[in-house]
C-alpha cells in the first residue's frame, strides 16, 4: 500500500525536515502550509480530504502514513492564529510565522514576491499509521 502513495516531504532533507517529522510523529504538528503556485508549477492537484500520503524522513524513508483531514485555501494575509498554533513549530506571533514561512518559500519556491493576497493551502492531516518505532 505505501508504495502507491504520494510522498509527503516537509522541507528539504536535513535538520528542518527531521524536526518537522518528529513534531508530526509526536502529534504536535497537525497542519501545514504550502503555496498554491507550487502545486500549479508541479502540475499536481491540491490534496483532498481522505487522501493518504507517505511521510518521508531525511533519508527518503517512509515513516508514517498521513491522511488529509481538511484543505482550505486562503490569502497569506488571512492565515489564522489557530493554524499557526496547530503547525506546532513554536511561533509566538503571526508576524514571526510569516517571516519564517516567507523566508522558506523564497528559498525553495520559484514564485517570487509574496504579498497578502498570495494563495496559501492550509492542510490539516493526521497520522493513520506509523511505519517506524520510536
UniProtKB/TrEMBL annotation:
Q: Per the database record, which ranges form the ASCH domain?
A: 8-129
Q: Which domain of life is it from?
A: Bacteria
User: Which InterPro entries does the record associate with it?
Assistant: ASCH_domain (IPR007374), DUF984 (IPR009326), PUA-like_sf (IPR015947)
Can you name this protein?
ASCH domain-containing protein
Classification lineage: Bacteria, Bacillati, Actinomycetota, Actinomycetes, Micrococcales
Amino acid at each position: 500500500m505505501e508504495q502507491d502513495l504520494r510522498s509527503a516531504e516537509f522541507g528539504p532533507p536535513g535538520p528542518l525536515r527531521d524536526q518537522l517529522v518528529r513534531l508530526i510523529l509526536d502529534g504536535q504538528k497537525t497542519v501545514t502550509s504550502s503555496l498554491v503556485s507550487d502545486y500549479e508549477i508541479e502540475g499536481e492537484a491540491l490534496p483532498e480530504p481522505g487522501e493518504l500520503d507517505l511521510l518521508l524522513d531525511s533519508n527518503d524513508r517512509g515513516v508514517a502514513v498521513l491522511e488529509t483531514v481538511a484543505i482550505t485555501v486562503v490569502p497569506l494575509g488571512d492565515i489564522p492564529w489557530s493554524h499557526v498554533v496547530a503547525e506546532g513549530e513554536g511561533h509566538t506571533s503571526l508576524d514571526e510565522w510569516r517571516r519564517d514561512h516567507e523566508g522558506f518559500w523564497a528559498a525553495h519556491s520559484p514564485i517570487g514576491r509574496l504579498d497578502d493576497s498570495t494563495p496559501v493551502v492550509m492542510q490539516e492531516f493526521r497520522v493513520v499509521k506509523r511505519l517506524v518505532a520510536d
